[in-house]
Every structure is written in structure tokens, then in C-alpha cells.
Amino acid sequence: DEELRAKDIQLLRLQRELQDALTDGIAKRAELREDLQQRDAELFALRATSNQVEADLYASQSVQSQMGKVVEAREAEADDARREAVATREALWDERARRKELERLFGMAETALEDERRRNILLLERLAALEATR
Prior knowledge:
mainly alpha, 2 helices, rod-shaped
């Protein structure tokens, strides 16, 4: 009897630990989603900045004969902005891939936790049946 109670307590602790791990995983996934949304917003802002710089570049080309040095400076800024935007886009794509991998892993963990929960329920039901036959 005491052994069964000890196993019950152990199963309940394990179930609590698994539920806590699942809750932590879900919170982490939400945090990662929020981070990705923030990064997407930053990318959008960088794209807008890059588009504005390109628009400024085209506008300045009409006065290029008078402002050659200014145009060269703007072109350098545009190139820097484009390089930064490309680097940021690549970083965001890498981040998205990492997030998808994490989501896949969290999904696997959730499935494993759910399987473990079902096994625990079956064990508890068996235990209850054993106690009922005593």
C-alpha cells in the first residue's frame, strides 16, 4: 500500500514536472514569436529606409552635374544602407529558420509530454484498478 502511494506521489510529481516543462516551452515559443515579430518590424523599417535612400539617390541624380560630390556621398550611404539591409534580411531569415527549428523541437517536446501524460494516466488507472481489487 505504501509502495503504491509512493508511486502515486512519484507519478504526480513527474506529471507536475512535465506540465511545468510544457508551460515553459510554450512561454519560450511565445517569446520567440514576439522577438521575430519585432525583428520583422525592424526589417520593414530598414526596407523603408533603404527605399527612401534609393528614392533620394534617384532625385539627386538630376542635379548630379552640380553636386557630384554630394551624389557620391549619397551613393555611399545608399550602398551602406543596402548592405546593412541585406545583412539584416539574411540575419532575419536565419532567425526564422532557427525559430522554425525551435518550434519543431517544441512540438516534439509537447508530443512527448502529452504521450508521457497519457502513460501516467494509464498507470494511475491501473493503480486504481489494482487498489480496487484489493
